[in-house]
Amino acid sequence: MTSSILLISLLLAIIEKSHPLILTSGQRIPSRQSIHQHASQNARLGPKSFFDLPAIEKFATDNDLKEHHLKGLYRVLMNADRSTLERTVLEEQLHALSFPKKQISSLLSTFSLTCSIQRIEKSKGGAKFVVQLPNGKLIESVLIRHERHNGDVRYTTCVSSQIGCAKKCSFCATGTMGLVGQLSSAEILEQIYLLQQYVKEEKLPGQVGNVVFMGMGEPLDNYDAVHEALRGITHQCLFGLKAKKVTVSTVGASAQKIRALADEAPQVCLALSLHSAIQSSREVLIPSAISIHIDDLGDALDYHACKSGGRGAMLEYLLIDGINDSNEEARALTEFCLKREGSVYVNLIPYNPTLAGDDFGFRTPLDERINAFHDNLKASGVKALVRWSTQNGRDANGACGQLVSSTA
Ligand code: SF4
């Protein structure tokens, strides 16, 4: 009898260990078991991040903390400023939340913030942040300010998902770095946290209302970490954004990953960097496009539209003088969009000069040419807008395609 009780207890302990507490209530993007395996494989030396959710959840399980403890922890962190992030202040606040004293000490010895802002370059449209990772590498994040007609201010945080990028798109500064490394989900979440802290500390009006994965890297090449970060961004205990306020931007090298995102996070917005609807031109601008035909990409978009309830994707189209701004390109783009029966929306982005693009002799088209291309699309019934605002960060090299870190 005693031995069967022991056996049952042992089995229960094993089951408990292999299924850590998951911060479930308030989550809009469910966690995946594979993430827990991925996170442990990527364990790093030094303190772990408060935003490493699988590690925090495992710590909670191992130390008999409950979900309300985790919720309290994130309430403290999300309301903290630099002064209240001091260890003694955190200790007091966690104590007030009835955290057992021993667990507080262990928690604060195991976890901390692991990224820091090294440099801020302000521009009229926001600011670019050089962020140092725990391994010493540098990445970049951008805060973009939007002012509505009624005077309300909101910020979009543009986050990096990789250090550098393997895709080597010809117009992109980040592509010149090659892939230096992958970011963990915690490093992605800490970028948003640091920028949110900046807004708070500078006493800027408004708050962060959107997150876009348009910084350094191809998010779908770091799919597991990005998916886990989506859980934190949308979780009510953390950043609490609605999934539709988050955009994952891809150059679309993998139809399979687009389908996976549509299956696992259908309400998250998808932006596809198309840049040309003609296969041969696209391969010049995006060398990785050689691995996927434009028709297969279209099929993946249709799948996404179906899964997202018809919301469809944004098509990003960087307009480069004499390269992809011809009438033939406008016709191909029109045909591509009309096949999607109104489920796509085109963002026309005037090319932002980069050293990478300069090597190819890329130039920004004249405003008249941009307007003519736009008119061409509209005349055929394609929903399109010129994103003049993407030029706002130009003076700080924080505009689309301009992010690069020479010290990564
Ligand atoms: S545009 Fe995006 S996918 Fe292409 S090289 Fe730059 S960061 Fe990578």
From TrEMBL:
The keyword Amino-acid biosynthesis does not apply. Keywords: 4Fe-4S, Cytoplasm, Iron, Iron-sulfur, Metal-binding, Methyltransferase, S-adenosyl-L-methionine, Signal, Transferase. Residues 151-395 form the Radical SAM core domain. GO terms for molecular function: 4 iron, 4 sulfur cluster binding; metal ion binding; methyltransferase activity. It is found in: Cytoplasm. Pfam families: Radical_SAM. It comes from the Eukaryota. InterPro entries: Aldolase_TIM, Methyltransferase_A, rRNA_lsu_MTrfase_RlmN/Cfr, rSAM, rSAM_sf. CDD domains: Radical_SAM. This is Radical SAM core domain-containing protein.
